[in-house]
Write a structure and sequence with these properties.
The complex is a heterodimer of chains A (109) and B (111).
Chain A: E1 5-7, E2 10-14, E3 19-24, E4 31-37, E5 44-49, E6 55-58, E7 61-65, E8 71-76, E9 85-93, E10 96-99, E11 103-108
Parallel strand pairs in A: 2-11
Antiparallel strand pairs in A: 1-3, 3-8, 4-5, 4-9, 6-7, 7-8, 9-10, 9-11
Chain B: E1 5-7, E2 10-13, E3 19-24, E4 31-38, E5 42-50, E6 53-57, E7 64-68, E8 74-78, E9 87-94, E10 100-102, E11 106-110
Parallel strand pairs in B: 2-11
Antiparallel strand pairs in B: 1-3, 3-8, 4-5, 4-9, 5-6, 7-8, 9-10, 9-11
Classes of the chains: A mainly beta (109), B mainly beta (111).
Chain lengths: 109, 111
């Protein structure tokens, strides 16, 4: 069974701090996506990474795909209250999408 | 472009009943996937439909079924509801497997 482990599960930090969320697996994925989900809504796609070692930036968010395409990280610089939400990674393997367990992020003003 | 819509948004049923949820994908998207989200299990893949055919299936019992119509709209059905079926059911449409767009979900409560 393919698994995507996310860490940490919960994170509460002060506004302005930096943070990193990790997504790890023993499986290789052809692509990996990061989503953010707010209460009462569906997940919203933030980014897709495809190439091993790929780094993508979205304003204050930096996404990296591991060289072996088994892991990924999301780094947020100078976190803001609007970054609060559930962050999910999802790996694509053989046309099946596997979701990580999620990281619930809370940013305190 | 209109986003993915799901109806109803909220539903309350009792054990043993059945339920049908509906999903309208983004125009032009032929793939529709369904997920179950619970606090304990996270987001779990139910099935994916493409051009009216089930292309992939997750590890759920046969009580969970779905279908897709020629206009790409999809429905999922759960029969003989159990308390553990209480969850947020999410539908996602995509043009490519790498980019899924989710609807707001249907919150199902089984009493």
């Amino acid at each position: 069974t393919q698994l995507l482990e996310q860490s940490p599960q919960f994170l509460s930090i002060q506004e302005g701090e930096n943070l990193t969320v990790y997504c790890n697996s023993s499986s290789v994925f052809s692509s990996l996506q990061w989503y953010r989900q707010e209460p009462g809504e569906g997940p919203v796609l933030l980014v897709t990474v495809v190439t091993g070692g790929e780094v993508k930036k979205l304003k204050r968010l930096t996404f990296q795909f591991g060289d072996a395409r088994k892991d990924s990280s999301l780094h947020i610089t100078a976190a803001q209250p609007g970054d609060t939400g559930l962050y999910l990674c999802a790996g694509n393997s053989a046309s099946k999408i596997i979701f990580g367990s999620g990281t619930r992020l809370s940013i305190r003003p | 472009k209109a986003g993915v819509t799901q109806t109803p948004r909220y539903l309350i049923k009792t054990r043993g009943q059945q339920v049908t949820l509906s999903c309208s994908p983004i125009s032009g998207h032929r793939s529709v996937s369904w997920y179950q989200q619970t606090p304990g299990q996270g987001l779990q893949f139910l099935f994916e439909y493409f051009s009216e055919t089930q292309r992939n299936k997750g590890n759920f019992p046969g009580r969970f079924s779905g279908r897709q119509f020629s206009n790409s709209r999809s429905e999922m059905n759960v029969s003989t509801l159990e308390l553990g079926d209480s969850a947020l059911y999410l539908c996602a449409s995509s043009f490519t497997i790498n980019e899924q767009f989710f609807g707001p979900g249907t919150r199902l409560t089984v009493l």
